[in-house]
């Protein structure tokens, strides 16, 4: 089959700038939406993946394996675990084991008057939004090596102080280092800003666990997190897997504590699986909206190809086969849609990549990575092929004599 | 001097184009059934190689249908249509396309040039179907443009040409592959008298010098008068045949 020259298709693209704009625009929209949805999904997955370490054991209340926020365990669990299991990592003589409280609390910026009072009954100055607050212990820094203090200092015990992740601060209008914020109505001074890029902790407030227990009026903890990989009496490093088996054995023996052990990475993997329907919903919504954009692009292609029926008839009369003409039209459609897809990838990298998305458990950033770009390109190219087929078939469906008269 | 052979079926001993009981029926679906339109009833026709034939007749007499069948761009319902050794009625669509590329040049009333291609590129189009290399294609296309007197317009787009010039480019495109058969559907229908005369002179020249067989549909008696054989169709049948005696 002899094909029409490639540049024939390219030149035809410029015939109607308006139609070209519509096709490229439609393709850009479709590709950008798909790319955005994949970036959302990948970002959430990456963030949850980075938030949990495979070498950390997480002890949760039995029956609360799916949500650390719902979990309640005894404050003595950490001590009991440390006393019973040898494989807990030790850093600078301190065991890497921490009891924490994880709770979502309404947060807002305190007004100047509220900043000077410690009453919880003060009226709120700004709109409240629930933000994840983590009650931590000193050892928390040992089990969360992703966290680094960026500015200020860590809160001191006793005072109503809080450290903030950058995305947590960003969720409260006007909040910055030194601001007083209201957490569940309690004024707290932001004395430090930490960062944990790519993890959900980047969007959390951290305060001493005792203070958070008072604010939330709870006597229990949410979880115990232990870094595995300590050394035994002979000074040999204990395999984290063996250490985790010991932790599981501990939870099996200490039924009175009503705890269950999971690897921290597994917990977040389960959380990612739990959120899979939301990711799917985002993707489906994006596809539905993209469908509208695709229809616009296809409609423009219909119009573009419908005006070329006579030309298609002429080319057939000259001796070109329908297949050759169809391929030329398909190239045209593909080039237009690929241009839109490339523009979407560029826009995605420039505008979407790294955008923070806040949700109840913290925050994550959209990840416009190679997979998202591949999905965007694939969406554009698919639109070029699938969207081109019907207009092309219509353009070539007429018998040659009728096409010549059209 | 003109000889009149009404409903003649044999004019040449060695006819190159032969139609036998050629019939074309279009079926049109209506609410209360199917309507049959019969542009060609049972046409018998012979045309000698190298002839210049004009097809005349009232609207609906089957002229354009016959031309489409001769071009292999429409399929007969029944009968036979031989052009040389090829029975077009039994050829498949792909085979017909390949045959057209080599054997037939078509000139349309409304030129049908591709607007995004220059005059040269339009003329070169049929050669893209041949095994010729780029240099040979360029030579041939320029030669065809020279034949129609438009070598100096090679780089012009159709929108930059007059109607007469567009039709001459279309003729160059039709003859560039040097087909033995040239079919023209009202080639002067959209042209002024001067341009029409130029086109007819070109057709004369191609018939006499290049020995191309030309079949031209026309309503214009002056254009028809340039042909050596004039066929008059009526109601899908050959009503009259006139031949100019040299």
List its traits:
heterodimer, A: 406 residues, alpha+beta, 2 domains, 6-stranded mixed beta barrel, two-stranded antiparallel ribbon, 14 strands, elongated, B: 246 residues, alpha/beta, Rossmann fold, 7-stranded mixed sheet, disordered N terminus
In short:
The complex is a heterodimer of chains A (406) and B (246). Chain A is an alpha+beta fold.
Helix/strand-derived category of chain B reads alpha/beta
Strand-pairing-aware structural class of chain A: alpha+beta
Strand order of the largest sheet of chain B: 1-11-10-4-9-8-7
As a percent range, the share of strand residues of chain A is 15-25%
One letter per element, helices H and strands E, the order of chain B comes to EEEEHEEHEHHHEHEHEE
| Major sheet size, sense and barrel closure of chain A | 6 strands, mixed, barrel
Distance between the termini of chain B: 8 Å
Q: Return residue spans of chain B where pLDDT drops below 50 for at least 5 consecutive residues.
A: 1-13
Could you give me the name of the CATH homologous superfamily of chain B? P-loop containing nucleotide triphosphate hydrolases
As for the number of domains of chain A, it is 2
Helical amount of chain B? 25-40%
- Give me the strand/helix succession of chain A: HHEHEEEHEHEEHEEEHEHEHHHHEEHH
Shape field of chain A = elongated
Head-to-tail CA distance between termini of chain A = 26 Å
Folded structure, characterized:
The complex is a heterodimer of chains A (406) and B (246). Chain A is built from 14 helices and 14 strands. Chain A is α+β, with helices and mostly antiparallel strands and 406 residues long. Chain A has 2 domains: 6-49 and 276-405, no CATH class; 54-263, no CATH class. Chain A has a 6-stranded mixed β-barrel. In chain A, strands 2-3 form a two-stranded antiparallel sheet. In chain A, strands 13-14 form a two-stranded antiparallel ribbon. Mean pLDDT of chain A is 88; it is low at 119-125. Chain B has one domain (2-244): Rossmann fold (3-Layer(aba) Sandwich). Chain B has 7 helices and 11 strands. In chain B, the strands form 2 sheets. Chain B has a 7-stranded mixed sheet with strand order 1-11-10-4-9-8-7. Chain B has a 4-stranded antiparallel sheet with strand order 3-2-5-6, covered by helices on one side. Chain B has 246 residues and is of the alpha/beta class. In chain B, helix 4 (134-147) crosses helix 5. The relative contact order of chain B is 0.21. The interface between A and B is medium-sized, with 24 and 25 residues.
């Amino acid at each position: 089959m002899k094909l029409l020259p490639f540049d024939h298709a390219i030149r035809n693209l410029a015939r109607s700038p308006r139609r070209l704009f519509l096709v490229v625009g439609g393709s850009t929209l479709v590709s950008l939406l798909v790319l955005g949805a994949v970036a959302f999904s990948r970002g959430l997955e990456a963030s949850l993946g980075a938030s949990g370490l495979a070498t950390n054991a997480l002890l949760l209340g039995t029956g609360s394996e799916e949500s650390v926020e719902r979990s309640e365990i005894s404050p003595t669990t950490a001590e009991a675990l440390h006393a019973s299991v040898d494989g807990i990592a030790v850093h600078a003589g301190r065991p890497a084991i921490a009891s924490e409280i994880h709770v979502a609390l309404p947060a807002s910026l305190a007004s100047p008057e509220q900043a000077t009072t410690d009453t919880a009954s003060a009226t709120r100055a700004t709109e409240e939004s629930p933000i994840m607050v983590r009650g931590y212990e000193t050892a928390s820094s040992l089990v969360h090596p992703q966290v680094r203090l960026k500015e200020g200092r860590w809160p001191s015990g006793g005072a109503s102080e809080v450290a903030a992740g950058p995305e947590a601060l960003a969720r409260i209008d006007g909040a910055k280092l030194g601001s007083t914020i209201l957490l569940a109505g309690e004024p707290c001074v932001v004395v430090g800003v930490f960062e944990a890029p790519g993890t959900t902790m980047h969007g959390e407030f951290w305060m001493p666990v005792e203070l958070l227990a008072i604010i939330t009026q709870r006597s229990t903890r949410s979880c115990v997190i232990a870094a595995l990989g300590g050394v035994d009496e002979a000074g040999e490093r204990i395999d984290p897997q063996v250490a985790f088996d010991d932790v599981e054995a501990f939870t099996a023996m200490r039924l009175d504590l009503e705890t269950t052990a999971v690897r921290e990475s597994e917990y977040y993997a389960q959380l990612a699986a739990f959120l899979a329907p939301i990711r799917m919903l985002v993707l489906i919504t994006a596809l539905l909206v993209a469908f509208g954009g695709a229809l616009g692009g296809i409609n423009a292609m219909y119009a573009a190809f419908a005006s070329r029926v006579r030309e298609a008839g002429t080319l057939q009369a000259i001796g070109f086969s329908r297949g050759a003409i169809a391929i030329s039209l398909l190239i045209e459609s593909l080039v237009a849609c690929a241009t839109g897809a490339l523009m979407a990838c560029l826009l995605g990298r420039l505008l979407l990549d790294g955008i923070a998305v806040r949700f109840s458990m913290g925050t994550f950033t959209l990840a416009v990575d190679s997979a998202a770009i591949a999905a965007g390109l694939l969406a554009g190219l698919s639109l070029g092929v699938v969207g081109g087929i019907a207009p092309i078939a219509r353009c070539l469906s007429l018998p040659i004599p009728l096409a010549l008269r059209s | 001097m003109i000889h009149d052979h009404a409903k003649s079926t044999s004019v040449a001993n060695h006819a190159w184009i032969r139609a036998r009981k050629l019939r074309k029926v279009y079926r049109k679906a209506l609410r209360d059934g199917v309507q049959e339109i019969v542009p060609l009833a049972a046409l018998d026709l012979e045309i000698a190689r190298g002839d210049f034939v004009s097809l005349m007749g009232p609207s609906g007499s089957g002229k354009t249908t016959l031309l489409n069948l001769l071009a292999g761009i429409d399929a007969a319902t029944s009968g036979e249509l031989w052009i040389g050794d090829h029975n077009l009625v039994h050829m498949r669509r792909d085979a017909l396309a390949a045959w057209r590329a080599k054997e037939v040049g078509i000139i349309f009333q409304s030129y049908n040039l591709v607007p995004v291609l220059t005059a040269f590129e339009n003329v070169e189009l049929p050669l893209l179907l041949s095994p010729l290399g780029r240099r040979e294609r360029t030579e041939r296309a320029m030669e065809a443009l020279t034949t129609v007197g438009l070598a100096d317009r090679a780089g012009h787009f159709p929108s930059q040409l007059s109607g007469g010039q567009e039709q001459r480019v279309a003729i160059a495109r039709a003859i560039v592959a040097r087909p033995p058969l040239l079919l023209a559907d009202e080639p002067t229908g959209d042209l002024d008298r001067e341009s029409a005369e130029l086109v007819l002179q070109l057709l004369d020249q191609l018939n006499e010098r290049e020995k191309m067989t030309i079949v031209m549909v026309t309503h214009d008696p002056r254009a028809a008068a340039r042909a050596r054989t004039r066929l008059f169709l009526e109601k899908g049948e050959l009503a009259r045949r006139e031949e100019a005696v040299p």
